[in-house]
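agent> Task received from the user: take the single chain below, predict its 3D structure, and emit structure tokens. No templates, no multimer pairing.
agent> Plan: (1) validate residues, (2) run structure prediction, (3) serialize to tokens, (4) report one or two observations.
agent> Step 1 OK, no nonstandard residues flagged.
tool_call: predict_structure(input=
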Amino acid sequence: MSAWLTTSRRTTTTGLGLLLAAAALTLAGCASESPTVDAAPGEGPDQSVAFSDGWVKAADSGMSAAFGALTNAGSDDVTVVSATTEASSMLELHETVANESGEMIMREIEGGFVIPAGDTLSLEPGGNHIMLMDLSDPLEAGEEVTFTLTFADDSTYEFAAPVKDYSGANESYEGGEPEMDMGSDSMGSDSTGTDG
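)
tool_result: status=success, residues=196
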């Protein structure tokens, strides 16, 4: 009887040990996975950019724009050279400037957005922004749009921004494209409180 009891204890101890080892491996695997955070700093050898206070203008079709703040916590300037999203087949990095007659126009910025080291670049109505042209589907308030930025060093950064209703003044697109509300009036009642 004592031999049976010893064998039974060994089997129980071995089974319990295997169960605890499996549980520890499972927990270790879970602990090593880090959650994805849309507004976390980007990855790349020479940039550490974070996006905040983002929003996208609601639109039924045609064009829209994305706004927010890009902060560079690194010690070197960073250049955003392009942006992509499934919400639009064509994106451009835009600035808003006065033309020869003093009229405010939007145009693609040569060389992309430069975010100085330790500084923030504001993307806002009437200023720099990410222009979405040829929208895939209507952008309705309450939805979320995911973007991927590409930097000059070929690193990328992904962030998401909510779609908001916005009514602003008209500005023209360089080259005579249709006008879009991009002025400095404040956003509607669904706003984030950001004034352009």
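agent> Step 4: summary for the user.
The first strand starts at residue 49 and ends at 57.
agent> Done.
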